[in-house]
Amino acid sequence: MKKINLLALLFLALAFGFTACDDDPVDPVVNDDEETEGTIIVTENISEDVTWDNETVYQLGGRIFVLEGATLTIEPGTIIKGEAGTGTNATALVVARGGTLMAEGTADAPIIFTSVADEIEPGMIASPNLDPDIDGLWGGLIVLGYAPISTPDGVAQIEGIPPSDTNGLYGGGDAADPADNSGVLKYISIRHGGANIGEGNEINGLTLGGVGSGTTIENIEIIANQDDGIEPFGGTVDVSNVLVWNAGDDSFDCDQDYTGTINNFIGILGEDSDHGMELDGPEGPQDNGGYTLINGSIKGLPDNGSDYIDLRDAAATRIENVYFFNFRSEADVELDDAGSAANYTSGATVLSNLQFNVSHLDEGNMTIADIFNDTTESGAFDNITEGEASIVTTPTVGADKSAFTGWTWADANGELADF
């Protein structure tokens, strides 16, 4: 379990007075949604079509689900703030299987998910009072669907939601629909989340559980999440133009035989970040070809404990046109298990045009042979080719940062200057 930011703890303890709770989930239905000047406190699950307008700040008063058959439409420029809480009190917006989220921000008016501690107002991009490394102040955004996942029965409970809450189920089992549609997410910034609901169980910035290819997800920024930035658990949805800054764990994490593509991505690691990518394999049958990460740039920190890529649990993936720079001297690319090594050897995992800039280092892993670490001792990485990975000082691959200019906090803070 990662450490919780001290400011987050102080905020939770003093500002909101939460105490320890039992293992039963908190019913988000407290009363009718309450309205104060300029703010609506949302306390009920969404069971019928509703629109959140950009003249109002919406405050999540609990774990709020968009239930099956209902559509939540969020106008461009709308701000949604999660109340503080940990354990089963953690707040989150969750699109349940069969629910729909139509959150179509624009470059001129992105939709912002943040904490009630954030004094940001409509029209602002940067927070006026919270630093971009303050995490764990609320939960996050979770989208669940009926697409295939690789677990023993094709259905699972999403991490971050207590097992007793069946609205947290994802995957379609025998009736899985690869083209399942959970809606549209465009130009969305998700900040200061990742509340801990139990030991080693935090909510990701954007969690995708069994989300189908009928869903549109593009132009997403995730900042200061205590756990991973974005994590698909199975599913087939494609994601484009996603930026993760100051994740408390991994920037990009893929699990349960996700089969979509993440295209044009930027990772900016923070003091507590772990891997640029943690790529996992199936937890059941592996029969649909793996996932792809293409056209990305990831910036490390020389003084933290982060690594480039960790391939685990018989991962099968394609990683192409990715540039890594500013990492620590011990950073490596690891094959963590025999299944991952076998998938690389057989061609189920494909590496193409991975470029590493180590010009800031005086010692450590400064060659491809040093960077690529086969911890299984199978020798799988012994003959890696220049077309797969190379050392560079000037990259010829990577993300197109123009997709993130003008609307992201990262751009407003000058974080894109090195990309």
Report on the architecture of this protein:
There is one protein chain. By secondary structure, the chain is mainly beta. It has 2 domains: 1-236, no CATH class; 238-419. It is 6% helix and 34% strand. The chain has 4 helices and 30 strands. It has a 16-stranded mixed β-sheet that branches. Strand 1 and strand 2 form a beta hairpin. It is globular, with a radius of gyration of 20 Å. The chain starts with 5 loop residues before the first helix and ends in a 7-residue tail after the last helix. The model is unreliable at 1-32 (pLDDT under 50). Residues 1-20 form the signal peptide. Keywords: Signal. This is Lipoprotein.
Distance between the termini: 31 Å
Please report the total strand number as a whole number. 30
Helix content estimate: under 10%
Question: For the residues shown, what is the average pLDDT?
Answer: 91
Oligomerization state of this entry? single chain
Number of domains: 2
User: How much strand content do the residues show?
Assistant: 25-35%
Question: Number of DSSP helices?
Answer: 4
Report Rg. Answer: 20 Å
Main sheet attributes: strand count, strand direction, barrel closure: 16 strands, mixed
Signal peptide: 1-20
Keywords: Signal
Protein name: Lipoprotein
